[in-house]
Amino acid sequence: MRKYNSIVYRLTGMSFILLISTIGILLFLVNLQMDQHFSEYLQYNGAALTLPYSAHGTPEQHFMASVHHSLIWVGAAILTISLFISYLTARSITKPLCTLNEAAQTLKEGTYGKTVAITRQDEVGMLADTINAMSLQLHQNDQMRHHLFTNIAHELRTPLAIIQGNLEGMIDDVIPVNKTMLLSMEEEVLRVNRLVQDLRDLSLAEINELELHKEDTDINAMLSRAVNMLQPLIDEKNLSVQLDLLKNGCTAYIDKDRINQVLYNIISNAIRYIPEKSSICIVTDRVEKEKVPYISIRITDTGPGIAPEDIPYIFQYFYRGEKSRNRKSGGSGIGLALARQFVLSHGGTIAATSHPGKGTSFSILLPAGPA
């Protein structure tokens, strides 16, 4: 940016032009009034009757000239002071803008997380707050991106290492080639395939390009089927599952496969993390939100709950509240992130509440179908 294109000089110039115009008009009017009133004064005192200004005597002319000179000097002094004040005012406005420009340049260069210390309560202060919030959000997103790549690499490396080790052992005749080993390797391949597919679905859902095949679906039937499919895991831990389902009108307009995956993720998580002989309660209802009908699904368990500091992050990629959880006990870490994106893609909402030591509750709202 060229120096003389600076907003400081433009604001100063505009203020100066306005002031010089105002002062020039005032000086002209003052001079006019002085001439008029001085002539009236001389007329009143008998010094002149109808003589023009040029006919005034020498003392009168000297007096008027000195008054005019004084006014000109006063005007010049006021203009100089006004120019200085205009510059300072413009500078006070543009200095924080220069600071914000430097902050924007650091964001452009990829340096996130830095903030500017501007505490003004005007529009510039609001702009500073917005840039600070954007910088912090970009910093958080950048950290999440790094963590995402690290976790993806970790999740892929483990099954690939198992496959590679088994193949090398078979090639070296250390591991026998039999059906059991091949099935084990197939399981790892399927694990990698599921992870890649889930990540693809997540990325498509985030940019609203996930293809959905919506149809009117009975939510109660989906939930009953999910519980039946997970019954062996429920019996293994001696859990009790209570279904309190709405009798009529529990139809939602959804992609059955996507929402089925959401329900399986949440119910299987509850089964996995609650202790033996605990209980799970599943409730459905039909509600209205801003005069729009929704199907409400609430899945509540009586497990250990989730720490309050972990609640805001449980729907993020690869987030695990208990850092000690491994791949087998904690899954891939994207189940809830996937569930959230699938629900949002349907125009619904999903939220979690938890009380440590008492349990966790997941609430889902999905667009309702015909009543």
Automatic annotation (TrEMBL):
<dbReference type="Pfam" id="PF00672">
    <property type="entry name" value="HAMP"/>
</dbReference>
<dbReference type="GO" id="GO:0005886">
    <property type="term" value="C:plasma membrane"/>
</dbReference>
<feature type="domain" description="HAMP">
    <location>
        <begin position="91"/>
        <end position="143"/>
    </location>
</feature>
<keyword id="KW-0597">Phosphoprotein</keyword>
<dbReference type="InterPro" id="IPR036890">
    <property type="entry name" value="HATPase_C_sf"/>
</dbReference>
<dbReference type="InterPro" id="IPR004358">
    <property type="entry name" value="Sig_transdc_His_kin-like_C"/>
</dbReference>
<keyword id="KW-0418">Kinase</keyword>
<dbReference type="GO" id="GO:0016036">
    <property type="term" value="P:cellular response to phosphate starvation"/>
</dbReference>
<dbReference type="InterPro" id="IPR005467">
    <property type="entry name" value="His_kinase_dom"/>
</dbReference>
<dbReference type="InterPro" id="IPR003660">
    <property type="entry name" value="HAMP_dom"/>
</dbReference>
<keyword id="KW-0472">Membrane</keyword>
<keyword id="KW-0902">Two-component regulatory system</keyword>
<keyword id="KW-0812">Transmembrane</keyword>
<dbReference type="Pfam" id="PF00512">
    <property type="entry name" value="HisKA"/>
</dbReference>
<dbReference type="GO" id="GO:0004721">
    <property type="term" value="F:phosphoprotein phosphatase activity"/>
</dbReference>
<feature type="transmembrane region" description="Helical">
    <location>
        <begin position="7"/>
        <end position="30"/>
    </location>
</feature>
<dbReference type="InterPro" id="IPR003661">
    <property type="entry name" value="HisK_dim/P_dom"/>
</dbReference>
<keyword id="KW-1133">Transmembrane helix</keyword>
<dbReference type="GO" id="GO:0000155">
    <property type="term" value="F:phosphorelay sensor kinase activity"/>
</dbReference>
<dbReference type="Pfam" id="PF02518">
    <property type="entry name" value="HATPase_c"/>
</dbReference>
<dbReference type="InterPro" id="IPR050351">
    <property type="entry name" value="BphY/WalK/GraS-like"/>
</dbReference>
<protein>
    <recommendedName>
        <fullName>histidine kinase</fullName>
        <ecNumber>2.7.13.3</ecNumber>
    </recommendedName>
</protein>
<keyword id="KW-0808">Transferase</keyword>
<feature type="domain" description="Histidine kinase">
    <location>
        <begin position="151"/>
        <end position="370"/>
    </location>
</feature>
<dbReference type="InterPro" id="IPR036097">
    <property type="entry name" value="HisK_dim/P_sf"/>
</dbReference>
<dbReference type="InterPro" id="IPR003594">
    <property type="entry name" value="HATPase_dom"/>
</dbReference>
<feature type="transmembrane region" description="Helical">
    <location>
        <begin position="71"/>
        <end position="90"/>
    </location>
</feature>
